[in-house]
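Lab notebook, design round three. We kept the backbone fixed and only want residue identities now. Task for the bench partner: fill in a sequence for the structure below.
Input structure tokens:
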């Protein structure tokens, strides 16, 4: 579940320079290679579909819950990743839409220096959902920061996720980074 949560984080953070002519004003950031440092915390137990829970023995459930506690749920974790922001990704909006077709976004406000949006995602079986609020602020054309709070719910469980990030432009060439 941590991997899925981080995937959501990456998709959302990758949308930093997403541009939709009808709803989003392009942020004043450079295209090229970016490094993002994100800190995230998770609290609560991840929603697990009822059919998956039904297949687990009580011992398996207990082991899974113990593993979640051992993984440091609630303890801040920091990741550093590189992302390539290209003109093509911006024009096709593929940075956000390709991987998360089950999510919708509502723009709260959008300027060249700040983007605020609400995000809602439904699981395939509609037993899980995620709601989040995302903000990114341009510090300069080669620096940005932001945050996101998301709540994932389903099967009687709720998990809260909080993310903060800062990113810096590394240069125009992305090399092998996609």
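Proposed sequence:
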């Amino acid at each position: 579940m941590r991997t899925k949560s981080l995937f959501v984080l990456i998709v959302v953070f990758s949308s930093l320079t997403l541009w939709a002519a009808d709803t989003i004003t392009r942020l004043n950031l450079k295209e090229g290679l970016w490094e993002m440092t994100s800190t995230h915390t998770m609290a609560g137990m991840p929603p697990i579909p009822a059919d998956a829970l039904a297949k687990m023995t009580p011992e398996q459930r207990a082991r899974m819950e113990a593993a979640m506690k051992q993984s440091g749920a609630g303890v801040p974790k920091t990741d550093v990743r590189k992302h390539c922001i290209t003109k093509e990704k911006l024009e096709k909006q593929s940075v956000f839409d390709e991987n998360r077709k089950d999510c919708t976004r509502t723009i709260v406000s959008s300027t060249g220096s700040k983007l605020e949006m609400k995000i809602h995602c439904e699981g395939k079986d509609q037993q899980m959902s995620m709601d989040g609020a995302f903000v990114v602020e341009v510090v300069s054309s080669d620096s940005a920061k932001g945050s996101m709070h998301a709540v994932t719910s389903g099967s009687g469980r709720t998990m809260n996720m909080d993310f903060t990030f800062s990113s810096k432009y590394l240069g125009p060439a992305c090399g092998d980074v996609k």
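Keep this in mind before ordering anything: The chain has one domain: 2-171.
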